[in-house]
Design brief:
single chain; about 140 residues; seven-stranded antiparallel beta sheet; 4 helices; globular
């Protein structure tokens, strides 16, 4: 038996939801680190995220850009996508307006997300992570 795959429209709808993605990177010792992270898909097919510059995730990606990204539904029946690809760390650093646009679906609106971005920046420098998928697999347990 083979689990059905998501069609393109359902995949687009999944990526438009404010879900917590799981970003897998490789640590210096070869172990895998899984980081929960907010995301937004981009018109160019990349997936944009934002995190602290001094995080283990950023250190791992600067050393080894190979990574994977899992995005799946919260509730049964589950749907999801697992991507393999590479990611780069990008600026601009501490981009309040850009972070606000990226986080607005999670925080409810741009104004609330802007205040949250300012709080995060107060805790440490924020940078973007741009994931570029090279291959993927999807699943659809809705039957």
């Amino acid at each position: 038996m083979k689990v059905p795959l998501l069609n393109d429209n359902d995949l687009k709808a999944l990526l438009a939801q404010p879900l917590v993605a799981k970003l897998g990177t490789v640590s210096r010792d070869g172990s895998v680190r899984i980081t929960p992270i907010w995301f937004g898909d981009q018109a160019d097919g990349s997936i944009l995220m934002n995190t602290f510059e001094d995080s283990a995730t950023v250190r791992n990606l600067r050393r080894d850009a190979n990574c994977s990204l899992l995005i799946d539904s919260r509730d049964y029946p589950y749907i999801g996508v697992h991507y393999w690809g590479t990611a780069t760390v990008e600026g601009p650093e501490d981009d309040v307006e850009g972070i606000a646009r990226l986080f607005a679906p999670y925080r409810g609106d741009v104004d609330t997300a802007r205040e949250y971005a300012k709080t995060l920046i107060g805790w440490g420098t924020r940078v973007y992570v741009r994931f570029r998928p090279q291959r993927q697999t999807t699943w659809d347990f809705r039957g």
